[in-house]
């Protein structure tokens, strides 16, 4: 590094991207090792060995924790390498990582909170009875809103995430998702089931959100070093009280990722984006909104250059990773 790198927004994916060995590339960096060591101390075991076993990542609690720690470790490593982001945002549990990376929450407290949150979700509606499915294709938002309205306000079907112009995620009971498929297919789009995903960001997890609420009162909030965009309102903010209110609503509110992609450029002033992870996930969604925006993948230490033709540049549609 010859100097600080500016203009980038950093984005952190959620638990569905957890992969074995994701931490190892970051370990040569002291800043990342400190994050891993602290998480291991809080959890009482070596997370590198624990999460290095592919079988363990089938446990949703492990997947949530791994996404959190990889995101924070990557962000702190990139900062140590000279990256000075204009904003940070995370998708799903990635928002917890973004809040720690921005310095507004402590890692030890958030590890405990995410552990508790994931355990509660694991005891929620089982994947055999409820889950998530993505509406995929042009005009996905309009079609998703229509099928939710058709089922009425008494159903458990809800929009869980506005991921991009061509991808919107539904959550609900399995029979409701089956009914939704009919409307989606009739509109000429596809509905892709997301196996193993809890039916979050909707009414089916309202009771879990209520049980989790007292845990938020125990968090110590600080002014973040860099604006954070919440999934709830997609607004860059350095106001701890505002971010705290958004986090309390996070589990039952739809993820506003398409709006986040717009705000990263229009409000935060990002001229390029770095995604921390093992595979392109959020980057392709951002490119649905900003086709010409340089979006790069950071899989280990070192700041990738803001070159849209770089070998790590993200292009194409978001990976569906599901069943039709």
Automatic annotation (TrEMBL):
Protein known as? [acyl-carrier-protein] S-malonyltransferase
Q: Where is this region: Disordered?
A: 299-324
Keyword list (alphabetical) reads:
Acyltransferase, Transferase
Statement: the UniProt record of this protein carries the keyword Transferase: yes
Any one Gene Ontology cellular component term annotated for this protein = cytosol
Q: Which InterPro entries match?
A: Ac_transferase_dom_sf, Acyl_transferase_dom, Acyl_Trfase/lysoPLipase, Mal-CoA-ACP_Trans/PKS_FabD, Malonyl_transacylase_ACP-bd
User: Transferase: present as a keyword of the record?
Assistant: yes
- PANTHER family reported for this sequence: MALONYL-COA-ACYL CARRIER PROTEIN TRANSACYLASE, MITOCHONDRIAL
Q: Which Gene3D superfamilies match?
A: Malonyl-CoA ACP transacylase, ACP-binding, Malonyl-Coenzyme A Acyl Carrier Protein, domain 2
Q: Which reaction does it catalyse?
A: holo-[ACP] + malonyl-CoA = malonyl-[ACP] + CoA
> What EC number(s) does this enzyme carry?
2.3.1.39
All residue ranges annotated as the Malonyl-CoA:ACP transacylase (MAT) domain in the record: 11-306
Q: Where is the signal peptide?
A: none
Q: Might you name a Gene Ontology BP term for this protein? A: fatty acid biosynthetic process
Q: Name one GO molecular function term.
A: [acyl-carrier-protein] S-malonyltransferase activity
């Amino acid at each position: 590094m010859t100097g600080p790198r500016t203009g980038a927004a950093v984005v952190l994916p959620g638990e569905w991207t957890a992969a074995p060995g994701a931490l190892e590339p970051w370990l040569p960096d002291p800043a990342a090792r400190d994050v891993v060591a602290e998480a291991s101390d809080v959890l009482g075991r070596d997370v590198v060995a624990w999460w290095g076993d592919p079988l363990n990542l089938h446990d949703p609690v492990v997947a949530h924790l791994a996404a959190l720690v990889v995101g924070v470790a990557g962000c702190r490593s990139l900062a140590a390498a000279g990256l000075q982001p204009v904003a940070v945002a995370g998708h799903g549990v990635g928002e917890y990582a973004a809040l720690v990376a921005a310095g507004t929450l402590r890692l030890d407290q958030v590890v405990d909170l995410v552990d508790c949150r994931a355990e509660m979700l694991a005891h929620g509606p089982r994947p055999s009875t409820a889950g998530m499915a993505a509406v995929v294709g042009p005009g996905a938002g309009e079609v998703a809103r229509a099928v939710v309205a058709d089922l009425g306000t008494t159903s458990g079907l809800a929009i869980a995430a506005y991921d991009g112009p061509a991808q919107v995620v539904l959550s609900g009971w399995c029979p409701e998702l089956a009914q939704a498929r009919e409307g989606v297919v009739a509109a000429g789009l596809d509905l892709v089931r997301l196996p193993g995903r809890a039916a979050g960001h909707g009414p089916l997890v309202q009771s879990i959100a209520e049980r989790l609420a007292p845990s938020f009162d125990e968090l110590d909030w600080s002014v973040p070093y860099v604006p954070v965009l919440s999934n709830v309102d997609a607004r860059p903010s350095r106001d701890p009280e505002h971010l705290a209110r958004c986090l309390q609503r996070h589990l039952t509110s739809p993820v506003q990722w398409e709006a986040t992609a717009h705000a990263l450029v229009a409000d935060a002033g990002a001229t390029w984006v770095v995604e921390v992870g093992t595979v392109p996930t959020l980057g392709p969604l951002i490119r649905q909104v900003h086709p010409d925006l340089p979006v790069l993948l950071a899989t280990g230490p070192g700041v990738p250059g803001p070159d849209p033709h770089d070998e790590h540049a993200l292009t194409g549609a978001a990976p569906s990773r599901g069943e039709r």
